[in-house]
């Protein structure tokens, strides 16, 4: 008799960290954000607008960490992390990052900038799942503010997905800035992706602004996985930790 492999349950979290500051940059709250992220118990965390370094802020705030923000958030909980530097300026740089409880076998940060000062990237990581499960592919996304830029970036994302093994478990999460809700049809048509909140509830989750969510800017897309339960983290403390409400979901391999 052939043994049946049980499903592997993963908890996913995506957070636009707003560089560790509250809405309108009024207060530095990276330490509170770390506590909140820990409390979710996610296996994989997708971070956008996370600082690699910032000399001026480091000199200004006495509780500024001596390491990068993504290393500070990973702490001792997530053994592996990857960072994709997108925007570079005189004081430092920021980009996307991924924290993982599974080993990150390799990663690539693909430049998705179109033109002008707005710098964007697609951070692709390959994770080693426990045997006998297949490698997990994860792509952390932060798309542009202009719709014409987003359309080109979605084409880049589709191209990246087509380069992956067709049967590999895939999770794509982040800030899509898709306030007109046009990305879903494109990603479903070009890459067979499903958005977890649409699949479970028939509608996108509203995430922006965090205190009074009106726009569905943040998303979690999957392929070759089963969605168990999506969650919007819009109440305290999350509503005061960023300008975006985070999203979480449990998926099954």
UniProtKB/TrEMBL annotation:
It holds the Pfam family Exo_endo_phos. This is Endonuclease/exonuclease/phosphatase family protein. Transmembrane segments: none annotated. The keyword Hydrolase applies. GO terms for molecular function: endonuclease activity. PANTHER family: CALCOFLUOR WHITE HYPERSENSITIVE PROTEIN PRECURSOR, PGAP2-INTERACTING PROTEIN. InterPro entries: Endo/exonu/phosph_ase_sf (IPR036691), Endo/exonuclease/phosphatase (IPR005135), GPI-anchor_lipid_remodeler (IPR051916). Keywords: Endonuclease, Hydrolase, Nuclease. Residues 32-244 form the Endonuclease/exonuclease/phosphatase domain.
